[in-house]
Design a protein that fits this description.
This protein is of the alpha+beta class. It contains 5 helices and 13 strands. It has helices at about 5-10, 25-30, 40-55, 85-95, 190-195, and strands spanning about 20, 35, 60-65, 70-80, 105-120, 130-135, 140-145, 155-160, 165, 205-210, 220, 220-225, 230-235. It starts with a helix and ends in an 18-residue tail after the last strand. The structure holds N-oxalylglycine (OGA) and manganese (II) ion. Manganese (II) ion binds near residues 121, 209, 252 and 253.
Length: about 250
């Protein structure tokens, strides 16, 4: 996105980059769903997209059947990066992950075409650990988080190109061993699982996340037209798994 467009969007987003259904959810998730606008410089955005473009272009956009979580996408798992990109990813690691957290050995790169979108889901606890951090490139988008037990509790994140979002359990809470993987349309987690987090709130485990399709892409009153969007997503390793072992990940982790 050109600098002037970015500025225009920033000016329009007078309400900041996070909206919520009410003050309670906003304060509950204040440290668990974080947006850092302008995390990347224009040069860093350019570095990443230039490096990713040739790899992505080799793939076709996929339009899966109705129950798939992601529509109109192509993706890659990337573990070899240029030095310049590695420096950027190290900044992400320092900003989003604790010193004791190990990252998955490959970074998930997801390219959504302008009509592409991601349906509500919770990343599988089998394949991903407690923290998810994503850089957004090219187009702004809206990520919506909805509480899996209380659908009236939601948060929306305005993700501009160059921004970083971080979803984590608040205050170092970890998932209980009986936590379940939520796929779209599946029942809510075991009540005992939910209660573990209910005091503070975990954007990672208690809320589903989605990227809105173009027609629904509004931040409050503000229309946020969706173009092609690339995300670069770093995830921590599930607890108790060695690096590189998680195996094949389903599309929405
Ligand atoms: C996913 C996902 C979000 C993004 O791939 O599981 O939620 O920022 N992606 O692309
Ligand atoms: Mn996800």
């Amino acid at each position: 996105m050109a600098g002037s467009e970015r500025l225009a969007l920033r000016t329009l987003s007078g309400q900041g980059w996070v909206r919520g259904s009410g003050p309670a959810v906003l304060s509950r998730l204040r440290d668990a769903a974080v947006v850092r606008p302008g995390f990347l410089s224009a040069a860093e955005e350019e570095t990443l997209s230039r490096e990713l473009e040739p790899e992505l272009r080799r793939r076709r956009y996929e339009y899966d059947h109705w129950d798939a979580a992601i529509h109109g996408f192509r993706e890659t798992e990337k573990s070899r990066w240029s030095e310049a990109s590695r420096a950027i990813l190290q900044r992400v690691q320092a900003a989003a992950f604790g010193p004791g957290q190990t990252l998955l050995s490959s970074v998930h790169v997801l390219d959504l075409e302008p009509r592409g979108y991601i349906k509500p889901h919770v990343d599988s606890i089998k394949f991903c650990g407690s923290t998810i951090a994503g850089l957004s490139l090219l187009s702004p988008s809206i990520m919506r988080l909805v509480h899996t037990q209380e659908p009236g509790a939601w948060l929306e994140l305005l993700l501009e190109p160059g921004s970083l979002y971080i979803l984590s359990p608040d205050s170092g809470l970890h998932p209980p061993s009986q936590a379940v993987c939520l796929e779209p349309g599946l029942p809510s987690p075991h009540p005992a699982t939910a209660s573990v987090f209910s005091r503070r709130g975990s954007a990672r485990y208690d809320f589903s996340h989605e990227i809105l399709r173009d027609e629904e892409s509004f931040f409050g009153e503000q229309r946020v037209p969706r173009g092609r969007r690339i995300s670069v997503i770093c995830r921590s390793l599930p607890e108790g798994v060695g690096p590189g072992e998680p195996g094949q990940r389903p599309p929405a982790c």
